[in-house]
Amino acid sequence: MKKIVLLIYTIFNLTLLFSQEKTIIELQKIDGYGPHGKTSFGISEKRDSERRELYPSAKNIPENWNDVREYYYELNPNQLIYQSAHLLDTMSSSLAKLLETEDIDLKDSVNYAKEPLACGINVVIGKDSLGMHYIIDRNQNNDFGDDVVRPVVGRNTSSSVPNNPDYVFYQYWYDGKV
């Protein structure tokens, strides 16, 4: 009888514990970058990435720059893996592993395009006599020569970002069409 009373008492307490009203925490939206206020993301250098064989090489990096670092931001990683598998003459073991890890079927032409799509962003950053600068390959032609050189200093904190954004050309595959 003591066990039954103890069991009923325990069930009653657990019911009370989990039936409390939910606490609502109101968060203030702060104007910033991105569709939902402040956003942040990071990318690693091309040379540090295990996936660097997938990234297209870009030309016309300014010759007077020092400490040059190239980056590639994947907008659609699975499409990038799929098209790389179709474009490369021989498949490396790392690419084969990516196909398996991401569960990508090379025969799938419904969800992926064999033709190269602009599904990532090439970025280069470097230093010259005037300071740090960057270039974004906005038209996705793997050529920095026709893109705008911008200073790095103050870019993330100034009000010039919303007023002077870097628009990037992007393609996606949907229902068998680009």
Describe the protein.
The chain is α+β, with helices and mostly antiparallel strands and 178 residues long. It has one domain (2-163). The chain contains four helices and four strands. Strands 1-2-3-4 form a four-stranded antiparallel sheet, with no helix packed on it. The mean pLDDT is 77.
Q: Fraction of residues in helices?
A: 10-25%
Work out the number of β strands: 4
Span of the ends, CA to CA: 72 Å
What overall geometry do the principal axes of the alpha carbons give?
extended
> Any idea what the radius of gyration is?
25 Å
Main-sheet strand order equals: 1-2-3-4
Largest sheet: 4 strands, antiparallel
Strand content: 15-25%
Derived structural class: alpha+beta
Total count of domains: 1
The ordered string of helix (H) and strand (E) elements is HEHHEEEH
How many helix segments?
Answer: 4
**Uncertain regions spanning at least 5 consecutive residues:** none
Oligomer: single chain
Task: Summarize the model shown.
The protein has helices at 2-18, 77-87, 93-101, 160-163; strands spanning 66-74, 120-128, 131-136, 149-151. The chain is an alpha+beta fold.
Lay out the secondary structure.
Blueprint: H1 2-18, E1 66-74, H2 77-87, H3 93-101, E2 120-128, E3 131-136, E4 149-151, H4 160-163
Antiparallel strand pairs: 1-2, 2-3, 3-4
